[in-house]
Amino acid sequence: MKKPYTEICWHARGGQGAKTAAVLVAEMAIHEGKFSQGFPEYGPERMGAPIRGFTRVGDSPITAHSAVYTPEIVVVLDESLLEITDVCEGMPDNGVIIVNTARPPEEVRKHLSKKNVRLYTVDATKISIEELGRPIPNAPMMGALARATAIVKVETIKDSMRHKFEKKFGEKVVQGNLRAIDRAYEELKD
Fold this sequence. Notes:
Blueprint: E1 5-13, H1 18-31, E2 35-40, E3 50-58, E4 73-76, E5 96-100, H2 105-109, E6 118-122, H3 124-132, H4 138-148, H5 154-169, H6 171-187
């Protein structure tokens, strides 16, 4: 039986913004009139430790309140996790995987346990360093997510980024994030 919602699993290391991205995408989906949940998996959260975040998006109320075990979409913010975690675990055939890496998709595919997935890559770390001066790849990965899937629109991501962070971080940081989102959307490879 098909689930009445789409599940996303975010794989990252502490400090890369996966928790923030999981929650923001859920909020953005709600802004678009969908039902959604966004939450992290709690464990030994420390800078650099592997972490996971989860997002669910659907057209009707979501009553599941557990971790995500069968994600249709996986977003990997740190490619080194491909060596220590099976990011394909529980994915259905033709699921979507988006990996932050400078390597081309055909090279990354060799490191996946499941070969029949739609694989996309983007160098989100490079983009975030160039646009923000820091290696925090979550904003560009949200731009890549918008291009690879129909989960949220890129315009919604940018509007939310503008609204949510302008007062907190200032115009310079917001503009850097907007450029990073646009670049990842354009530079995504499949």
